[in-house]
Amino acid sequence: MNIYKTMYRPKKPLGVDDRQANIVGGGIAGLATAVFLIDDAQMPARNIKIFEKKPVMGGSMDGTKDAAGYLCRAERELEPYMECLWYLCSKIPSLENEGRTVLDDVVDFNRDEPIHSEARVIINQGEIDAHYHDYKLEPKYAEAMRKIIASSEEELANLSLNDFFDEGFYKTNFWTCFHSQLAFKDYHSVIECRRYWQRFTFITRHEYLEGFIHTKYNEYDAIILPIERYLIDKGVTFTNDFAVTDLELTDDNNTVKNIIANHAGQPAKVAVSAQDLVFVTTGSISENSTFGDNNTVAETNTDTTDMGTFTIWKNLAKKDEKFGHPEKFLGQIDKTKWISFFPTVKGYPEFFKRIERLSGSPAGTGGLMVFKDSNWDLSFEIHHKPFFPYQAEDEEVGWGYGLYGENEGNYIKKRMWDCTGDEIMTELLYHLGMLDIKDEVLAHTYMSTAMMPYCTAQFMPRELGDRPLVIPAGCTNLALLGQFVEIKDDVVFTVETSVRTALEAVYGLLDIEKDVIEVNPSRYDIRYLLERVKRFAGIKGDVKPSDLPEIDPAELPQLEAALLKMINDVPPYYQMYLGRDQTIPTKKSVLHPEAPLSE
Q: Cα torsion at 461, 462, 466, 470 (round to 10°)?
């Protein structure tokens, strides 16, 4: 992060006091938009309205409790280089520590309780895989990764990982740790996987989960609630039970005139003047979630008439090509859905104590364990206490999911998609080697399950143009937010993405004189690149002559071409000129001095 640029407070945009901002969607993207409008753009909070279909804010970052137990559909993989997220959190006051921020709370908590796993991969019903630290790849797989990274996104259009790898790659230790952490499957977009491999340092002690960040409470109570309280105190207007379905645009599809919605079951319309702003979340990975419990299966919602904010995107796409192609992501539910589960164990501490002894990690510090033998591809983690501010002393909670719910279980001979919460817990106990306590665990556990039809829809194969830009070409008062818009160099399926779209949207529509925070440029860091080469080659310590590959002289022209392409694909270093006119450093002379030039 460049502190000189990031912490600079830009001048207030002209006329911002007279403009209204309408934010559709109360997830993290919408909430972040409101914060940036207030703090960065200096828009009066009373001018900002947030419209949300659901009764609570937060979108996918949920965390709640009913009479039976707790519910939390998903977990976020947070890390230190999510610059936009931590920039946002640095602005929000802590709810517990006066004079501190949400960022301060997160840093303090991770210094006290850092994540460190030594039981990342479990096999044979309760054994730690002794070999999962070995990330050495066969040369053909290393070459395939090199080819992917060296290719342009235009060259990788609509291709999947299966177009580059065979079944052997999906059995490597690297893939086991990588895909189970991020929900990648073999038929997912190679463009998105390439971005992940370039964006994050998935090499340095990756399998120890070091560098991953967790919060003192679930992300709703730790991040969403403080932001919401901040916005309420500032004077932002929140309207719930407000389901936006479409936008009425001018004939050229560049300016929003009306927001079309249903409010409390009645048709509604919000008039938008040309100077006012509209920010719309165009889809949610948790949209149309359904829920189950110990004895009830979470059925799949396949309704295509009411798809929440996806409906807005679909209607926009019908109007103009610049709004993208939602059908590329939304048409194959059986390839984009998966089940998560959240057990509340009450009055039976033995279950979590056994997991702590198995892993060596105190609850909350071990991160996800993946069960490599699982036909469902199960992963599970146990949380620290309290994970909810109001959690009772005798309550313990965890979270898990299965990526291949279409498969029959190893112990429960059913598809995970067809299982109740008790059946899912029984399968988990089998892989933990803890069936001997099954009756006690089931008797003391409430299982909330969630089927999310579009959880990995953003990973489906695509090409440039399938996702709209944050500010689509020609749009004057409309910006799009969330996981289904195009951001240069960044990945989807992260909180950072949602917050980054908010920052780009606010800065872009209001022409704020400040650079958007750069995506972490790890792809240009020679240390990261060298670590990746060494790890996949199985090299420890200094590189020795014997580690270097033999080169066939006949391949030298091809190697030369590849090396030149790699060098020339690196963008120029940052321009150091600090003035507003950034064309100046592209010119040899602009001052026309009268003094003669020397011979």
A: 90
